[in-house]
Amino acid sequence: MLAAPTASFSIRRSLRQLPGVRSLVDYALRNKPVLTELEFAQFHAHGYLVIDPELPEEALDEAVRYVLARPEAKVSHHGTRVFNAWKECRPIRQIALTARVLRILRQLYGREPLPFQTINFPIGTEQRVHSDVIHFNCDPPTYMCGVWVALEDIDLDNGALVYYPGSHKLPVVTMEDFAPGPGTKYYEQYEDHIEGVARASGIPPAQAVLRKGQALIWAANLLHGGGTHHDKSRTRHSQVTHYYFEGCQYYMPLESYGGYRHLRFEEWIR
Ligand SMILES: O=C(O)CCC(=O)C(=O)O
């Protein structure tokens, strides 16, 4: 038999129904810290953090099934990406909006996270090293991050991410540093330039070996890329969601030059 609620329990419950109190409780829950002080400090010192978003396994598996059914998902081609599937696939949207990740990002950045893009990868990208800031910067700068979720176990044989711990503190590279003007036609020059930056930094690269369901958060300017996918018989299902943070002006440095800013107007994932 259930015990009758005590008087203090009933008073607390009634208080929580009051509109002002309810929004305060909601606010406190949304902003309740998830990370320890050490994890918080690690992220800001090294520019990345491995977390457990506590996503249901079914959501991970459904995201994979959705991607495999897409015509562009060729698991033999390292360029394969499925962009913005959150618009059609509920589990992919759920991964982007999972409350625990949003709370972690609020804690790390002190602002409301705004997810704006999902990319699903059925296979390792082997993408060259880069910083997301060349695509997505903002004012104030670097209020942006990527959350990369392993949808299956990922190790050194199936294209684990490569990243350079602490490289988020290197100066932000802009088009003026290496190109005669703005534009995607200079992207290969960007890759050559940033590879030189990574080499000159002397930072040894690391690789993200992750269990299914784990995620790596990278700070906007962290240098990273796709590791070699050695075992061609395996897939490397993963999803990255890119997040901006509230209250900034958002722009694309790759298309900006000499004081001109190519603004970005994103569709926030909701
Ligand atoms: O998943 C990968 O291999 C690389 C992804 C990446 O570099 C990115 O999304 O910016």
From TrEMBL:
Entry's transmembrane regions: none
Gene3D superfamilies: q2cbj1_9rhob like domain
Gene Ontology terms, MF aspect: 2-oxoglutarate-dependent dioxygenase activity; iron ion binding
Organism encoding this protein: Fimbriiglobus ruber
Domain of life: Bacteria
PANTHER family: ECTOINE DIOXYGENASE (PTHR20883:SF48), PHYTANOYL-COA DIOXYGENASE DOMAIN CONTAINING 1 (PTHR20883)
Organism lineage: Bacteria, Pseudomonadati, Planctomycetota, Planctomycetia, Gemmatales
Keyword Oxidoreductase: yes
Record-linked InterPro entries: Phytyl_CoA_dOase-like
Protein name: Phytanoyl-CoA dioxygenase
Cofactor: Fe(2+)
Leader sequence residues: none
Keywords associated with the record: Dioxygenase, Oxidoreductase
Pfam families assigned to the protein according to its UniProt record, in alphabetical order: PhyH
Record bears the keyword Nucleotide-binding: no
